[in-house]
Amino acid sequence: MQCIICKQGKTKSGTTTVTLQRGDSTIIIKDVPAEICENCGEYYLSETITGRILKMAEDSIHKGAEVEIIRFAA
């Protein structure tokens, strides 16, 4: 797929780190499967992966995490 941000690079499969913030909470999820632009580094997540990382972040926030670093489990 061609990157919609830089319009010059093509994406390839890889992993990335996603940082989510809500209020005073920051959740960092490492090794998230994504399509990543070879030119600018912009990443694109599938709907399934997005749902999973949002659930992981929500669980962390409900546990009271201010800052949490999680590794994505395939």
Which helices and strands occur, and which strands form pairs?
Elements: E1 11-22, E2 25-37, E3 43-44, H1 47-62, E4 67-71
Parallel strand pairs: 2-4
Antiparallel strand pairs: 1-2, 2-3
Strand proportion, as a percent range, falls in 35-45%
Category from helices, strands and their pairing:
alpha+beta
> Per the principal axes of the C-alpha atoms, what is the gross shape?
elongated
**Largest sheet, strands/sense/barrel:** 4 strands, mixed
Tell me what the CATH architecture is. Roll
Question: Roughly what is the average pLDDT, rounded to an integer?
Answer: 96
Helix content: 10-25%
Series of H and E elements: EEEHE
What is the first-to-last residue Cα distance? Answer: 23 Å
Number of strands: 4
What features would you describe in this structure?
The protein has 74 residues and is an alpha+beta fold. The chain has a single domain (11-71), classed as Ubiquitin-like (UB roll). Helices cover 22% and strands 43% of the residues. It is built from one helix and four strands. Strands 1, 2, 3 and 4 form a four-stranded mixed beta sheet that branches. A hairpin with a 5-residue loop joins strand 2 and strand 3. The longest helix is centred in the last third of the chain and has 16 residues, at 47-62. The two termini are 23 Å apart. The model has no long low-confidence stretch (mean pLDDT 96).
